[in-house]
Design goal:
Helix content of chain C: over 70%
Radius of gyration of chain C: 20 Å
Chains: A alpha/beta (403), B mainly alpha (300), C mainly alpha (340)
Order of helices and strands of chain C: HHHHHHHEHHHHEHHHHH
Number of domains of chain C: 1
Shape of chain C: globular
Structural class of chain C: mainly alpha
Oligomer: heterotrimer
Mean pLDDT of chain C: 86
Radius of gyration of chain B: 20 Å
Number of helices of chain C: 16
Shape of chain B: globular
Largest interface: B-C, 56 and 55 residues
Structural class of chain B: mainly alpha
Low-confidence stretches of chain C: 332-336
Helix content of chain B: over 70%
Strand order of the largest sheet of chain C: 1-2
Largest sheet of chain C: 2 strands, antiparallel
CATH class of chain C: Mainly Alpha
Distance between the termini of chain C: 29 Å
Strand order of the largest sheet of chain B: 1-2
Low-confidence stretches of chain B: none
Chain lengths: 403, 300, 340
């Protein structure tokens, strides 16, 4: 009995005395800024993890040139395998153990939703989220420490819808979409873009990411006799869709969503089905001959070669690396704007009063712009078409701004 | 959300796709059953072993070989690999609890998966199968040549195995060793080599399944993970100790899942597998050994 | 027999002392990690009762953890008829909801045995994550449910992580004692009898139906509590928080711990936690061996490390840590490990 009482007393004392010591501004010292991300480096979405590698290379480049206002950038990126549960663990580790200044460019809609509350409660900036869900830019009143980056999926879908109305007569649209927020955002946006012509959608089929193959879904869509196919699918499912279209002998006008449009993916599907596909883009695609002599792309490749930690020649043509560098460029600008007296609040102020022109890694003419009430940094894109093994942009800059 | 109306053409195509899916499940399920029958272990690494051998085929083809040139080489490697794994990992712990051995196969699966990412990277790769991607007209319905080819190869393989088990001495030895080890030893069957042979054959089956499905779903280290789950279900459906059951179970499962997912509205894509598993559970309540399996009856 | 009792009691006291004092020597974040080890430990205690003591293999306890986690999440976020429930009170509720699910699963399990049972429970683990996706209004779909962050109650001045640690390990120690008493008592003897020979058990008058189902219920209860704590610690649930592989990892932990060794489950829990989350550290240790050069950042290395360590542990310790401890400390065990 006495043993128990002693143990209980010790327990209470231990609980009461254990405590954490708060730090002034975590992650910032006189010569260092520590930034963190949680990205997929393994699993289904591993290629998207190249975004983090692009960021890493760009930060090293900036450090060699003196850093940001005299401080070197330290970048810690952890693997979450595209799993929101692991993203939560990683993010907690980043803020508690690694004591980062800000969490930046973490990837995945659900991943970022999972950590948004805890980051905002801890007043840690959740910057330039690598996801196109509209909520990251729209819900700033509830989550003031969060800001998105890439064009919203919903607006992307709307652009496709408007294009069909304008350019395809007697369109009959079939949609293959991933059965989660990502796919459904695109679908909802597309319906908005069709406006009165929403009846043009003759079939839409969702698939679950636990499927092994989407051929049955594509078969069902073909049976609707549609002449337009929207592929709002992720990674390998997008590949399988092209495969199925080709195998079934179907020839619709295909629209493929930006996230799945990487040249490395498009190049391995049957080209008969891929040719003529339309997508949108905001960055310069290093695999496209369109930008072969572009200064920005050349800069990208020289940085990757020197600081890319063993980048292969395939990596030099990988648009995910470029997207990472574009985001990193914006972050460095934001840090400079936040000034020498760097706090998390000054960082958020800079991030919500941004006007950035001349980012070498995005399309010419794009102005990356934010205000405290409009938190969508990139809202301009161009349409592009796949032919003869490469993407080529056409037409003017189109607005993807949420109305 | 508008779903296209029923047409016989589409039904035929869905059926064909289901049979093709089922053929792949059947191949893996057969591999699982062969290993279970001999060593009483569920091999969780079956899928990863299949993907690994498919990557080897892919590498060989990248070096310039055609599919049919690489095919026998890969089968030989697969067979050897299976035998080696059985000898080095399974044999030493033969007398350990079954669960321990199953955990070793889990470790093997993780190891192989990591090795694949390490050696070949995690990105999706294109795999050029032996069948063209043309479609031909079967009674007015466009069916893919590839689907027909996959089913044909699977049927051929199963037939060859059936002949092997039925008519060769080695096959007889394997069946004997699976049924009763001690009696088999008494008549001169080298039981532990029969087990190694079983693993070798199972790995070959997995390799073929992998090479058949890779052109369709694209090759990446995680290619077989979902398919393995379906294969387990098929093996249970058919009866864990019945090779015939594995094949029938595989095809039945493939067709059922595809048609359920397409034609039963509320099931759709998300609940396909749970619905199929529920049906299998109901079946098992009635026949605890699966369709063709045997379970010892204990009257108490 | 008395020696064994004293050994186990002193082991418990040592464990309790370590649990109480450890956070003073480790960082705040590490305390959180140890808390999660504790959650795995709770789940493994339940699995040990089911598989180790009553001989029924379950590859589906991850689903019971998910039931517990989702119960806590739904009660905390959506509340019960509008009232949000305090996270603490949801823990026993989560346990009971999961326990009832376990009883329900236990019923058809009566007809199945051995690996058929294992694969059907595996089927449950596979199917369960699909339910939140299908009934997304109730469960939150893939977006999941976001809870309020765990805060120490009654104004105790300590960090959130330390609170989670003491909460988890407090519950773990209580549940350990409960499990220990259970297996030493009449129910435990019935379980062991069923495990060793069903025919003999029935001949001695033990009701198979009642005890086998009870074992499932108990193990599900434990898993539900563990899942509930996990939801509280993470402040987030979605189908991927309790994936299919979790059920497999639980069985891995069970085997490493030593099937029916309750104390051994700590080793199992530690292994599955650290191999999942610190494979990079292990890779760096292994680098010290000659002829090995593993770059922890390269893709696939964590899996390779996990696989190698797992195989090595199972080959070297086929009866798990518990088996090793028994060989070292206890009198020779009379249990025969039979292959079924």
């Amino acid at each position: 009995m006495r043993v128990f009482v002693v143990c209980a007393a010790v327990a209470v004392m231990a609980v009461a005395s254990a405590g954490a010591r708060p730090v002034a501004t975590p992650g910032v010292s006189s010569d260092e800024i520590h930034i963190g991300s949680s990205v997929p480096l393994s699993g289904e979405a591993a290629i998207a993890g190249n975004v983090a590698r692009g960021i890493d290379a760009y930060f090293k480049y900036v450090n060699d040139k003196g850093g940001v206002l005299g401080r070197k950038l330290t970048y810690t990126y952890l693997d979450d395998g595209y799993d929101p549960g692991r993203a939560v663990n990683n993010t907690i580790r980043l803020i508690q153990q690694e004591q980062v200044f800000a969490v930046f460019s973490s990837l995945g809609t659900n991943n970022n939703l999972a950590v948004r509350k805890l980051l905002n409660d801890a007043k840690v900036p959740q910057l330039y989220v690598s996801s196109g869900a509209t909520t990251f830019g729209r819900d700033y009143k509830k989550y003031p420490w969060t800001i998105g980056y890439i064009p919203p999926y919903s607006e992307e879908g709307e652009i496709y819808g408007r294009y069909v109305v304008k350019n395809i007569k007697k369109a009959k649209i079939a949609v293959l979409y991933q059965n989660d927020d990502y796919g459904r955002d695109l679908l909802a946006g597309m319906k908005r873009g069709l406006g009165k012509k929403a009846k043009s959608i003759v079939a839409s089929v969702g698939y679950d990411p636990t499927s092994s193959d989407v051929q049955p879904q594509v078969t069902q869509l073909k049976a609707s006799k549609a002449n337009v196919l929207m592929v709002f699918a992720f990674g390998k499912f997008s590949l399988q869709a092209f495969n199925a279209v080709s195998r079934l002998g179907w020839k619709p006008q295909i629209f493929v969503n930006d996230v799945s449009s990487a040249a490395s993916l498009m190049a391995i599907v049957p080209q008969k089905a891929a040719n003529g596909s339309i997508s949108i883009v905001f960055g310069k695609d290093p695999a496209s001959p369109q930008w072969a002599n572009d200064k920005g792309v050349k800069l990208f490749q020289s940085i990757l070669r020197k600081y890319g930690n063993g980048a292969s020649s395939r990596d030099l043509k990988d648009g995910y690396f470029t997207a990472g560098m574009a985001t990193a460029y914006t972050l460095v600008n934001t840090l400079k704007k936040a000034g020498k007296n760097l706090t998390r609040q000054s960082l958020m102020n800079a991030a919500t009063h941004l006007t950035e022109r001349g980012n070498p890694f995005v399309l010419p003419g794009i102005v990356i712009h934010t205000t405290p009430t409009s938190r969508f940094p990139i809202t301009q894109v161009r349409l592009q078409r796949w032919s003869k093994g490469a993407w080529r942009t056409f037409g003017p800059l189109v607005s993807a701004k949420p109305g | 959300m508008p779903i296209a109306a029923f047409t016989w053409t589409e039904f035929a195509q869905q059926l064909a796709a289901g049979i093709r899916e089922g053929a792949i499940y059947a191949g893996l399920a057969l591999a699982i059953v062969i290993i279970y029958r001999s060593t009483r272990v569920i091999n969780f690494a079956q899928g990863e072993m299949a993907t690994f051998t498919t990557f080897i085929a892919w590498s060989l083809m990248n070096q310039g070989l055609t599919f049919w040139e690489a095919f026998p080489i890969v089968l030989a490697i697969a067979f050897t690999g299976g035998v080696v794994i059985e000898r080095t990992l399974i044999r030493p712990v033969e007398n350990a609890p079954v669960l321990t051995i199953v955990i070793i196969t889990v470790g093997l699966a993780l190891l192989l998966n990591g090795l694949m990412s390490l050696i070949w990277g995690g990105a999706n790769q294109q795999f050029h199968g032996p069948f063209s991607t043309r479609t031909i007209d079967v009674g007015g319905v466009p069916i893919s040549v590839q689907d027909i080819g996959i089913v044909a190869v699977s049927v051929l393989l199963v037939a060859l195995l059936a002949l092997f088990f039925r008519f060769t001495k080695l096959g007889l030895g394997m069946r004997a060793a699976a049924v009763n080890r001690d009696s088999s030893r008494l008549v001169g069957v080298r039981v532990s080599w029969m087990f190694a042979l079983g693993w070798g054959i199972a790995t070959v089956l997995g390799a073929v399944a992998g090479m058949m499905i890779a052109p369709v779903v694209f090759l990446d280290p995680n290619m077989m993970q979902t398919i393995l789950l379906y294969a387990f279900a098929a093996a249970v459906l058919g009866g864990l100790d019945s090779p015939v059951g594995a094949v029938v179970g595989g095809i039945l499962l493939g067709v059922t899942i595809t048609l359920l997912g397409r034609y039963v509205g509320f099931i759709g894509s998300t609940l396909k597998l749970p619905a199929a598993l529920l049906l299998i559970l109901v079946l098992l309540l009635v026949r605890p050994g699966g369709l063709f399996g045997k379970v010892a009856v204990r009257r108490v | 027999m008395r020696t064994r009792l004293w050994l186990e009691l002193s082991a418990f006291v040592v464990l309790a002392a370590v649990v109480v004092l450890l956070p003073r020597f480790v960082s705040d974040f590490r305390a959180r990690e140890l808390a999660i080890v504790g959650m795995y430990f709770i789940a493994l205690l339940g699995l040990s009762v089911l598989t180790g003591f009553s001989g029924q293999i379950s590859l589906g306890n991850g689903a019971f953890m998910a039931i517990g986690g989702y119960t806590t999440a739904i009660l905390s976020v959506d509340g019960f008829y509008g009232h949000q429930v305090r996270d603490l009170w949801t823990i026993p509720i989560a346990g009971f909801v999961a326990g009832i699910a376990g009883l329900v699963v236990g019923l058809p399990a009566l007809r199945l045995s051995g690996l058929y049972l294992a694969l059907i429970t595996f089927g449950i683990a596979v199917s369960f994550p699909q339910l939140p996706k299908e009934f997304d209004h109730f469960f939150g779909g893939t977006t999941g449910k976001i809870l309020n962050l765990a805060k120490p109650p009654f104004g105790l001045s300590t960090t959130a992580n330390n609170w989670i640690y003491y909460l988890t390990w407090g519950i773990a120690l209580v549940l350990l004692v409960a499990a220990w008493l259970l297996v030493r008592g009449k129910t435990g003897r019935a379980f062991k009898a069923i495990r060793d020979s069903e025919v003999a058990a029935v001949s001695s008058g033990i009701s198979l139906g009642r005890y086998k189902t009870l074992a499932f219920g108990i193990s599900a209860f434990y898993a539900g509590v563990a899942g509930s704590l996990y939801a509280i610690a993470n402040a987030y649930v979605n189908p991927d928080v309790f994936p299919i592989i979790l059920s497999v990892y639980l069985v891995v932990g069970l085997a490493v711990g030593g099937l029916d060794s309750l104390f051994g489950m700590i080793a199992g829990a530690a292994l599955i936690y650290f191999l999942q989350n610190h494979a990079d550290t292990v890779a760096r240790w292994l680098n010290h061996l000659p002829a090995l050069s593993l770059d922890p950042q390269k893709p696939g290395i964590p899996s390779v490390v996990f696989g190698i360590v797992l195989i090595a542990v199972m080959v070297l310790l086929p009866t798990g840590v518990g088996g090793l401890v028994r060989r070292l400390f206890g009198p020779l065990t009379t249990r025969l490990y039979t292959r079924s």
